[in-house]
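Re: your question about Spore germination protein

S., sorry for the slow reply, the queue was backed up all week. Below is exactly what I fed in.
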Amino acid sequence: MFFLNKLKKQPKFNTYDYNDFLTRKIGLEDINYITTDISSVKDIVTKVFENMDDFFIREIKVTEDHVVNFYFFIGLIDTSLFQESIIRPITDRSKSDQNINVDSLGDLMNMVQYFEPKDWKELLERCMRGEVICHFSGNKPVTIALGDVETRSLQNPSTEQQVYGPKIGFIEDVHKNMALMRKYFPDPRLKIQKYQAGSVTHTQLALVYLEEYADPAVVRKLQERLSKIKTDQILTSKMLSQYLVDFPKTPFPLAMKTERPDRVAFSLTQGKVAILINNSTFSLILPISLINFYETGDDNDESSTWSHSFIMFLRIACVMVAAMFPSVYVALVAFHPELIPTTLAMTLAASRNNIPLPAGFEALLMMFALDVLVESSIRLPSFIGQTIGIVGGLVIGQAAVEAGIVSSTMVIVIAFTAIASFTAPSWEIASTWRVVRYVLLITTLFLGLYGLTLIICLLFIHLCALHSVSKPYLTPFAPLNVKEAVNTFFRLNPEARQEEGEANEK
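Result:
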């Protein structure tokens, strides 16, 4: 009780609205009004950006009656362009006696355009995104886009490998990602709407969809949820998805993450909606169904329809193996050995001879060792991770069998389970089934085949209850849509995907 009381007395972290912060920091009741007084603007901007060593102010006296101030962050702008296109033309004009006003700003600066913010919030945010605040005395301050933030070049995605298809992926710049989507769809029906989330991060978001393809109700619901996000930070796609999905507490992903533009383009033609996130290589696709996690972009490049069908059936079979194989093995060996054929039962009994652990705890030990190896190989550098995988899988496994700690059959079961789980194209759905595998195994450990059947029934009930932005998670199987279900496994005509998109729109 003492410990619980101490926990209750722990201080809570306070969160503040960005507008409230600006109001308190600036000291003005109305942050929507920007004054024209150059001294007042300088005092306010200096106060907001105090204790920032990368923030600079440059003042140029043009004439006796006109002064221009520039406010910028040195690492966010192109300094050479700033010098050539802005500073040099103004200093050259300052040698004359002509009066300067905001209407002549375009004539003073070569090949640059300025923007007049509507309030202090927009003015300061534009400055922090790489624009220069330019304030002529007697006029309202304007901003000039001179951003020079370093970005990666387009490269092959590292987390979604595929045989066919384009070899480019999204980068951390949302504007370049939007341009990538424009290359896929040079069509006015491609709609892109920009949002901002996070009172501290001010993360830029882009809602992308195809008009006449996407369900208008889904688009409106996502627009409403994006506009109502109230949080301090949106740094990753997972943080964003928690505010968009219907059941954020479920272990199953209700929004698909991808860093492949071709996959997003294909999803848009199916009537789905994509959300691009600044500072993240992953975009979100909604609404989504469980079967979509087992489709890849290069499925459309398969030379044979039957080859695609075989791969889809193989992936679905691997799902069942990865989730239930250890549990079924434990249920048969520990609770229902009479269900095993005689010859196989004798082989299994011989392999388990002198093994000190029960089959259930043996499976838990091996699954735990497998997950430790997987996590260590992921976090370590690639050249070390491969070595860890080989050493752990071969040396430790063989040594455990020879020492009589685990049976050779259990090593085969866990190894085949691991291989089957890695056939999932999406790592997030593979991680979900990894958690489900533990739940099934622990239940089977106490209740046998009856417990396994009970948990599987509860799992299907949970999956049937899930929705992704009002779309059933088990579509097209529950509710059953025969035509769409057949098109998922047998793409026998070129209109199959288009019909699926029309079904999603309805």
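The chain has 18 helices and twelve strands. Residues 1-13 have pLDDT under 50 and may be disordered.

Happy to talk it through on Thursday.
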